[in-house]
Amino acid sequence: MAALGWLTPRRRSATARSVLAGEASAEAARKTAQLLEAEAPAPQPPAEPEFPVAGDDLAAAFFDLDNTVMQGAAIFHFGRGLYKREFFDRRELARFAWQQAWFRLAGVEDPEHMQDARDSALSIVKGHKVSELMAIGEEIYDEYMAERIWPGTRALAQAHLDAGQKVWLVTAAPVETATIIARRLGLTGALGTVAESVDGIYTGRLVGEPLHGPAKAEAVRALAAAEGLDLERCAAYSDSHNDIPMLSLVGHPYAINPDTKLRKHARAHDWRLRDYRTGRKAVKVGVPAAAGVGAIAGGAAAAIALHRRRK
Known about the structure:
Elements: H1 14-39, E1 60-64, H2 74-84, H3 90-106, H4 111-125, H5 130-145, H6 151-162, E2 166-174, H7 175-184, E3 189-193, E4 195-198, E5 201-206, H8 214-227, E6 235-238, H9 244-247, E7 252-256, H10 260-268, E8 272-274, H11 280-285, H12 293-310
Parallel strand pairs: 1-2, 1-6, 2-3, 6-7, 7-8
Antiparallel strand pairs: 4-5
């Protein structure tokens, strides 16, 4: 037995054995914790709060139309449809074509060009019945506008509708045209430029001014007050820096397909950005596939693009 003495642990006091056991356990625990920490997945950032918030009836969404919901400008597409129906001659056709070409090349709204387009449209519809233009507007939507709705923006609008919120278009386009588009998309309604009419006949004048820039913000503010909305809980969407006043009104501003100035502003103010264009250059110099005024506009756009490249 004496030969096996080396297998028998030396007797120590109970206190010494307890200390040794504790130290060994602590060291093992540290090593195990280090191994587990190394194997653990990286911590995930906190989930973004759900938005839009379902059931929040104090919230609503406001969407710009041109280049936000729809590619191009509604007023230009409307002009194409009116030309097809012989509302104006080839000189006016060329004017609309150039305006559309410029809009597609620049990719932004320019107040002077948009005002020129609206003046052209007002002179064309003067003396016509409101009901007649509404009926024609339905046809023009199917012919030129339906296929130009951005699916991504449409999905955003639908998310607000699914959450039980109202969704409004806010545009410088004629309110009649905007209302047709809103109804076709299943939206709540539209804020747009109001053309004066007497006894259901267009006079060729506007009521006030075009709904552009600061006027959009005033329209949203007035509608929110009438509807009892909390603007801090509302969302607004636009592509243009001209709509910064409207976007700044709400608690959830989005820059959609933004122009350069809006993109810079959105990044500086930590606004959300979404871009549904397949290619920035393609949008700016793309040639419309449709015939008539669209083909002329596309030709003008292509010519300008070629000229720039040669330079």
